[in-house]
Write a structure and sequence with these properties.
Radius of gyration: 19 Å
CATH superfamily: TolB, C-terminal domain
Number of helices: 1
CATH topology: Neuraminidase
Largest sheet: 5 strands, mixed
CATH architecture: 6 Propeller
Distance between the termini: 21 Å
Number of domains: 1
Strand order of the largest sheet: 3-24-23-22-21
Helix content: under 10%
Shape: globular
Structural class: mainly beta
CATH class: Mainly Beta
Number of strands: 27
């Protein structure tokens, strides 16, 4: 049964209304365990030599040989504030990695006892990180341990995007003088692009690309369509998929489809607020999404252009089929694994790699009998 996706056309825009999803059999998928015994694997990046770097939230970086499954711990990782939801977060190869060797990271940095989501880069040399550079220690510090974000994405014009959660301070997501609850845009060297939407605004930080986010742990830039997609945790209900645009306000905490944790009480002014962007998809109940990609490969041609995310609370691989940027269908795979899926990436072959919170990495290919 296909997900019915209802769009109500109102004067303030379109409202996404959640509906039932379909749990899909995994018989068309070949699911292989390629690594285990990791900590909580957070970010994954496939290197040109068919190895994979995996960040683990406790502050560890591991290199996995995708042929032999051998694991090598990487040295040179700096100290991190690995407490609560913080620690070593995302990893992504620079678009010019073959020439520059730069690898980008996000992590929670201890600054005077407070945690700040931080963007850094380094190079890998003989299983050691060298030339570590903190590019931006964000203005998001709190003593709280939740909602660091954070994912990394690149466009093809020399820019990097990365996401930051509200850090447990809801209204900071609407404060343009703080980085909490924002998606930021920088040049690859960490400098600020002069066409960012808040350049020249005295009351806004110039790195900000979009704001009003709760805890975005999915981010993907489609080079073909030049579109940036984001996925974020709602509160009790109300996880969101958003099409991210420069300077836009995505509502949190004034607009939310979720409820308070202490009671079935709506948050903010309601599901929609005039002047704030509405999601293209909401999840009620929450699936607890982490990781996001828009499939581009050839291994699963029927999935091209579709969105995939991990689901931690509802323990599946979430699949959203799009039709002109609206949701036409939602499917849920890998329920049989009963794993909190933390991340999903696509390999050069068009295969999927997923990371589970119990320290296992799986590879997903088409089943041989299909």
């Amino acid at each position: 049964m296909k997900l019915t996706y209802i769009l109500l056309s109102l004067s303030l825009g379109f409202i996404a209304v959640p509906a039932q999803a379909t749990t899909v059999s995994d018989k068309a998928l070949q699911v292989d365990k390629i690594a285990e015994g990791l900590g909580i694997p957070w970010g994954m990046a496939v290197l040109p030599d068919n190895t994979m770097l995996v960040t683990q939230r406790q502050g560890k970086l591991t290199l996995i040989d995708l042929h032999s499954a051998n694991q090598t711990d990487i040295s040179g990782v700096p100290a991190m504030k690995a407490e609560g939801q913080g620690g070593f977060l995302d990893i992504a190869l620079s678009p010019d990695f073959a020439d520059s060797g730069w690898i980008y990271f996000t992590y929670s940095k201890d600054v005077d006892g407070q945690g700040a989501t931080t963007l850094a880069r380094a190079k890998l040399n003989d299983n050691t990180l060298i030339d570590w550079q903190d590019l931006l220690i964000t203005e998001s510090r709190t003593t709280k341990g939740q909602h660091y974000g954070s994912r990394i994405a690149f466009d093809d014009q020399g820019h990097l995007f990365f996401s930051i959660g509200d850090r447990g301070e809801r209204h900071a997501a609407q404060d343009l003088q703080r980085h909490n609850g924002k998606i930021l845009r920088l040049n690859l060297d960490g400098s600020i692009p002069q066409d960012n939407p808040f350049i020249g605004h005295d009351d806004a930080l110039p790195e900000i690309w979009s704001y009003g986010h709760r805890n975005p742990q999915g981010l993907f830039y489609n080079l073909q369509t030049q579109q940036l997609w984001g996925m974020e945790h709602g509160p009790r209900g109300g996880d969101e998929i958003n099409l991210i645009q420069a300077g836009k306000n995505y509502g949190w905490p004034e607009a939310s489809h979720g409820k308070e944790y202490y009671a079935p009480v709506s948050i903010g002014q309601g599901k929609t607020v005039d002047g704030m962007e509405n999601p293209i998809q909401v999840y009620v109940p929450s699936i607890a999404p982490s990781g996001l990609l828009q499939y581009q490969g050839e291994a699963f041609p029927q999935w091209q252009g579709d969105l995939f995310s991990g689901a931690m609370a509802l323990q599946h691989l979430n699949h959203i089929k799009l039709d002109n940027n609206t949701v036409s269908e939602e499917n849920r795979y890998l329920n049989s694994l009963r794993q909190r899926i933390r991340n999903v990436i696509e390999s050069p072959e068009g295969w999927l790699y997923i990371a589970a919170d119990n320290g296992i990495i799986y590879r997903i290919q088409p089943a041989e009998n299909q």
